[in-house]
Amino acid sequence: MIRNYLKATFRNIARNKLFSAINIFGLAIGMACFILIFLWINDEIHYDKFHRNKEDLYRVVLSDKSSGRESLLARTPPALGPILKKDYPEISRFSRVFLIDGTLSRDNKNYLEDIALVDEDFFKMFSFPVISGSNDQVVSDWHDIVLSEATALKMFGKTDVVGEFITIDNEIEAKITAVIDNKKEFSHLKFDALMSIELLFEFGLPKDMITNFNNPLYTYVQLQDDAVMENLNLKIADIINQADNRLSVRVYLQKLEDLYLESNFIGDYEGLGNIQFIYIFSVIAFFVLLIACINFMNISTAKSSVRSKEIGMRKVAGAKRKQLIFQLIGESILLSFLAHAIAIIFIELLLPLFNNLTSKSLEIDYLNPYFYLFLLGIILFSGLLSGSYPAFYLSSFNPISVLKKDQDTGKKGKAFRRILVVFQFAISGILIISVLLIYLQINYLTGKDLGYNKDNLVYFSLSNIGDDFDSFKKRLSENNKIEGITCSSHILSNVTHYHHMDWEGKSEDSKVRINILFVDADFVNTLQMKVETGRDFSINFASDSSESYIINSEAAKQIGFENPIGKFMSADGQKGKIIGVIKDFHFKSLHSIIEPMCLSIAPRERFYCYIRVKPENMNDVMPFVDDVWSEFNQNIPFEYFHMDVTLQNMYKSESSFGKLSILSTIIALIVACLGLFGLASYIAERRIKEIGIRRALGASTISIVNILTKQMLSWVLLAGLISCPISYFIINKWIQNFAYQITIQWWVFLVGILISLTIALLTIISKAVKVANTNPVNALRYE
Question: What is the reported pTM?
Fold first, then answer.
């Protein structure tokens, strides 16, 4: 019997080549899209899952309302970890993480690497595999260093290097105690080497700092097996407020497993994911596959009149309805299997492009048995969903009726097909409109006026040039192609250096937390910021070197002075006079609103240099800067970054989201149009004699095309109208993640509907014109 069913299936495919091809390729494209998105989702959700203690690991984070509005902070003061471990028995271990750039040197070769300074318990908490050495007491001394496998291979060409010595920043001789595989692809912690955090305190950071808002590091804790996070959060909530009653800071724990996808904290790691994207793309993947299945249903029910006689004959010959349903669903599963084979080919062809769009290195693990179970699930799901309605629909035909005359599908079948077409293009319309709005929001983020000019601006770490910056700057200024040189204590894209702010006449109830950025006298001029009132720093005023402040408009607003110029203020006790107010500028991601900012000159806080270059001279100037760098820092390699690129990378996840959305939309449209083309072909086939008569009576091509297209275009138009409110709801919710948002304009929805209508029109017309130009003799010759 099964052999008979297979014969019937292949005969049906051969007899209806066009419609079978549309079904198979439509399913293949839908499956390929589904699997590609699944690979991306699977990669995203596997971050930090390899740690043995992952269920007991947490990061300590802060919710600060000291300034009257809540800010979520990822970084914490240095003393918090030790205090939590000492005072709360629920905590078994802790480790702080402080990230720095460092130069590792060996045999006169230098390597600029990312170094994480950690506590001794780091390796007992996190399960980074040790390739060489032991993970016991590997960073017990600040002269110890642990290398990643990649760094060891880069420096030594091998991993068996325990006991070797290297130099850090030309100052510290460090002994290699272990080599580890830090699994960068599945860890939110990115580092090339590890050293003891005691190094940080050795060079001056106060160990007991808990109330200063210069939170420089991340704190992780491991809970006892019987500890309950919610109960511990209640106990530790006020630990910082108790040390300083001026504050309103809540301390709480964030699950390590949630960190990569569910973080919206100030000062967090770069390149984290977003759980919303997981939800959105899960829905998109399902709907693209659903559109492909709908094509199958649509064409199968539309072609029911062709197969009705076969079904009638089988019933007359004694076939029961269950057998017919089994046969028809089996056909659908077989077609789904064929589609899956083609889908794998599509995936292998598209994977390099997909990886380029998502900045990942995804691949299919053909040796993983779970992958084949996953494929089997897709095949069965697609086959059952695609074939269920046609199977039950066709098997319900009365054999006497279908053998008496050419059975039409009836009003019920036609109505169902209309609903499916509307549903398909409603999904496509939602994707089109959403992609347009996503593009506009991302374009707004990358093009928004930041309050300074990011173009032709490069920056780099000063390493140990800070004390010689004036001489370094003077040497650079000899090049007349450089328009400006300045320095700062932080990278301008993510300043998180908080202090309490006091000012003349401040009431006891007033609380303002202010960010401080230490700069030199040329900072405002080089960054091309706008001074609204007062003046810029000047080397002609000796007091500017330590006793003067420039604040932004937001700080002036929160202070409440109508004219703050000449007033005195202090940031964490450091008193100075306000000499100027600059226009607000963005020094964090546009996910956050602009906060109060204060600029101050501090010669000992020179960590980053900024150079503005004339647009046409960038390639000429940077080799010169490299040469000057070598004069002051011979043993440390020069590495610089473009400010505009850094700012673009801040929205890397949004950019990947936008690219994936565009790709998914294109695929959904292709699949939907395949179905529409198949349906148009069927309708044209059913009306071929009518068209022949109309042509014989003198009907024009345009009038016939109009007859064949107007009904289906009305379905697409209805779908577009349905998609508008749904897409508005989805995108309006998404852009709430940004403090600065586009205004959703009505024309975006109109453009989305027009795109959908145009694509549908081109699809239908491509078939309609061909049919309209058919010689009527060929359609009427047997009448």
Answer: 0.81
